[in-house]
Amino acid sequence: MDTELNAIEIRNLTKRFGNFTAVDNISFNVRNGEIFGFLGANGAGKTTAMRILCGLSRPSEGEGTVAGYDIRNEQEKIKRNIGYMSQKFSLYPDLTVGENIRLFGGIYGLNDRQIREKTEEMLSMLDLRQERDKYAGSLPLGWKQKLSFCIALIHDPRIIFLDEPTGGVDPETRRRFWELIYDTAEKGTTIFVTTHYMDEAEYCDRVSVMVDGKIAALDSPENLKTRFSARNMDEVFRIIAGRAEREERP
Amino acid sequence: MAAIEIRNISKSYRDIRAVQDISLKVDEGEIFGLIGPDGAGKTTLFRIMTTLMLADSGSGEICGHDIVRDYYGIRKIIGYMPGKFSLYQDLSVRENLEFFATLFGTTIKDNYDNIKEIYSQIEPFRDRRAGKLSGGMKQKLALCCALVHRPSVLFLDEPTTGVDAVSRKDFWTMLRRIRSSGVTIFVSTPYMDEAALCDRLALIQNGGIIGSGTPEEIVSAYPYRILAVKGPSMYPLLKALRKIDGTVSCFSFGDCHHVAYDPARTCREAILGKAAEEGFADCSAEEISPGIEDCFMQLSGKWILN
Amino acid sequence: MKEFLASVKKEFRHIFRDRRTVLIVMIMPVIQIILFGFAVSTEVNRVRVMVCGDMSDISVMRITDRIDNNRYLEIAGTLSNPGEIEDVFRRNEADVAVCFGMDFGRESVSPSGNARVRIIGDGSDPNTARMTVSYVAGVIQQEQQDISTSLAGEKRPSMAPVVQLMYNPAMKSSYNFVPGVMGLILMLICSMMTAVSIVREKETGTLELLLVSPVKPVWVILSKLMPYLVLSAVNFASILLLSHYVMEVPVKGSLILLSAAALVFVITSLAIGILVSVISSSQRTAMLICGMGLTMPTMIFSGIIFPCESMPEVLQWFSDIIPAKWFIIMVKKIMIQGGGLAAVAREMSILTGMAVVLLAASIRSFRTRLQ
Question: What confidence tier does A246 reach under pLDDT thresholds 50, 70, 90?
Fold first, then answer.
């Protein structure tokens, strides 16, 4: 196991709730700087696995590291070295754009100078200068998503977890958002992303598909399509996830 | 008589215009899709049509009942499934269904054949609390509750949001079966790939309808041509393609880039040639017909025009 | 009608499946009664009296004995110098001190009327102090009266009016807080729970489904009220039983009249609950409005904490619009004074008026649409 190469290393991870095994003995690596797509049907165990990786929940069994820190006993360090953004707009709608950036900069322990620099950098990158003093809640959805994404990156984390970042966004904004993801990955940040849009699965370097708590497939979209003789990822997903036996759980 | 007809509906919340001058006509027994991103005004339009909200201006009828004056008549003949799961989490599957049947003055027994196909899938869990159901089963229960009184028109507000690709497919299969029993279905979705499954559809963006018709009509109205381009390093290729003169837009679509171009100004060979000049020699390019998503992006008018 | 019954059934299911809430609702009155009855009691009970004066004086001794024999008072000790009283209070060795003047015994029977006695209360707790002082004063005046009677030949009017509290001779605070708690609990159950239960349906989106169904909103509302009516009846009964058997508060008046008053009050509170639900968009707002806007004024104006009469006039006017005030007055009159319908006619008609107006307003404001 070489942590220099891998941003995430997971071995035999299992999570049980009572007699229900949400995550069933999964092992995988995510390479540094990779865009890793984490797919699965509703209830396949994606959310549970992702919570463990983000240091929000402890595994029942298994071991692993995220950003080089142990998922069992270095959860606080993990939290400091990853970024997280979910589909739900996670900024404070009643604070202005600038105030949100300052707040999250403060939370992650940036000093005033760093916060000022980051603010400028972000506002120019997102072309949000004009909107600096507007309430975050009044921005169009696409901008909100982009802003949350940048704020999740404010402390220069090694890995960023994106939980359905583009849900409900219009087609163009969705693509612009992915271009932002590409730019971020080019700078060396590892991207761990879940999505229900199968065309977005194509944009990932590698994709894993969870079924019934296990990882049923893990490969590049190209190889997966060849292996399942499918035209696109949508078909791949339907072939793999269609085999699910367990009834999803909330 | 049209199942749904609305004319010039507008609605604002304080200074935000949620819905602007929307007119639609939905025929009996068709699946009509309202397709657009979050915040486009879909839910507001649903609430106006289901008599939950009054429009600032405009008029309309559902099966001949006026949406303002005869709201009571409409409430008897429509089924409605709101955007988020809106059933009683602390009541069991059966209790929920029974309650909604009684509200409409009917019983599960009288309408069992109407919901049998869907209900039979959740019947094994009929004593389970609705809150303890999985996402897919909740969705089925909500659909049963909306169907239990044999409505003439079914309003489904984003029934597939947050649902995985496999379950979404199943859901649309169910909708087609419901339609075959003569029910008119008005459904909204943010997923463009579901557009092809509708009989007719309207594209909505920023509170206005930007295009409507059958999926074929919308596609045939597309003014440009599309080239699906693939290459070894996709993201740099995307940036390069955008710079080429004569292309109207360029975005990723799964494993290829869709380059929209004006045939009067350029052609496939010219584009490939320009790409090769930029260092992308081994690209493949295929002429394809546009999808609804291409049309939506074109109609929404947020292009980077060269 | 079937729709209505189905809705009522559903409401009961909501309540009984939320075990924690049911438990809180059922136990709340019990806890409040016990809390006010024992913990925050302002009763005159086992008051420690320090006597300061010439202990060889017969009159002083007689009064001291009298104090010591009283059910509610006891002698904590004697002092020779009044200057020590402050120390005693500071060390919390006594609640009240009685200082007799020089030659108290002789002066008390002399016609000059120069007998001097001072009662000093520990003002750090003014409510209790006021009560204990007046109670001790009552005991001493009793003694004075006895002396006057014993000196049959030289009968003269007693020097000070005799304080006597009718209906509540021991100044039991339970007489005060039982009506208060009753008002508070009924208000809380009816307004807050109704408001929250309607707003919850707003939040979960089920209200949309109810509204698009052909059921008339008035039935939706009425079906929501039923379970809380039952819950408040249970609470009403448990408060009555507790206060009667544990706190020994009598129910002197008619139980039917008392229940009728409670019913009118409950309807008023339910109507307020609906009004709150109309203006709040989240359960949190509804709770806040009920907590700050209803419970606090009810606490303040119910007399549990302060007597209404000692408030500034403006606040007294304000208290007139609080339904709980009228209900609490009625409960006091019926339970403790044994008043009949005639005695509470004014309060009853005010409260009924409020109920009618609020109920009409709430049904009107509950719209057939979302906004």
Answer: low
C-beta atoms surrounding A226 within 10 Å: 12
Chain B neighbors (3+ CB pairs < 8 Å): A, C
C37 vs C235: which has the higher pLDDT: C235
Question: Can you give the CATH number for the domain in which C71 is found?
Answer: 3.40.1710.10
Q: Which CATH superfamily is domain B4-219 in?
A: P-loop containing nucleotide triphosphate hydrolases (3.40.50.300)
Kindly report which listed range (A79-93, A149-163, B165-179, C98-112) carries the lowest average pLDDT score. C98-112
Chain centroid to Cα A190, Å, comes to 9
> Cα C105 from chain centroid?
42
Q: How far apart are CA C257 and CA C168, in angstroms?
A: 21
Q: How far is C126 from chain B (nearest CA, A)?
A: 50
Residue in B closest to A234 by C-alpha: B165
Band of residue C69 on the pLDDT scale cut at 50, 70, 90: confident
Q: Is there a domain that residue C370 lies in?
A: no
Cβ of B95 within 8 Å of Cβ of C13? The answer is yes
Helix (H, G, I), strand (E, B) or coil at B124: helix
What pLDDT is recorded for position B226? 94
- Does A134 touch chain B if contact means CB atoms closer than 8 Å? no
Query: Cα distance from B68 to chain C (closest Cα, Å)?
Result: 11
Cross-chain residue pair C214–B72, CB shorter than 8 Å: yes
Cα first-last separation, chain B: 46
Strand order in the sheet with B31-35: B78-81, B153-156, B184-189, B31-35, B200-205, B208-213
Whether A92 contacts A103, CB under 8 Å: yes
Q: Give the count of beta carbons closer than 10 Å to the beta carbon of residue A216.
A: 18
Architecture of domain B222-299: 2-Layer Sandwich (3.30)
Q: Which residues in chain A have Cβ-Cβ distances shorter than 8 Å to B161?
A: 167-168
A120 against C218, higher pLDDT = A120
Nearest residue to B295 (alpha-carbon basis) of B239, B212, B231, B236: B212
Segment B105-140, tens digit of pLDDT: 899 998 888 888 889 888 899 999 998 887 778 888
Provide CB contacts within 8 A for A20, sequence distance 6+. A249
B109 residue type, one letter: K
Chains A and C share 3 or more Cβ pairs within 8 Å:
no
SS3 B161: coil
Asked whether B67 and B75 are in contact (CB, 8 A), the reply is no
Cα-Cα-Cα-Cα dihedral sign, residues B245, B247, B249, B250? negative
What is the maximal distance between C-alpha atoms in chain A? 54
pLDDT at residue A250 in the model? 39
Residue B48 and residue C47: Cα distance in Å, rounded?
A: 70
Tens digits of residue pLDDT in C256-307: 999 999 999 999 999 999 889 888 888 889 889 888 888 887 777 766 666 6
**Distance to chain B for A119, nearest Cα, Å:** 26
- Residue C356 to chain B, least CA–CA distance (Å): 27
Chain A residues within an 8 Å CB radius of B235: 179, 182, 186
The answer to whether C98 and C140 are in contact (CB under 8 A) is yes
Taking an 8 Å Cβ-Cβ cutoff, which residues of chain B contact chain C? 47, 50-54, 71-72, 75-76, 78, 80, 82-91, 95, 98-100, 102-105, 145
Among candidate residues C124, C143, C166, the one where a domain is terminated: C166
- Answer yes or no: is pLDDT of B287 > 90: yes
Could you read off the pLDDT of B44-60 as tens digits, one per residue?
999 999 999 999 999 99
Domain count, chain C: 2
Strands B16-26 and C73-79, by their bridges, are unpaired
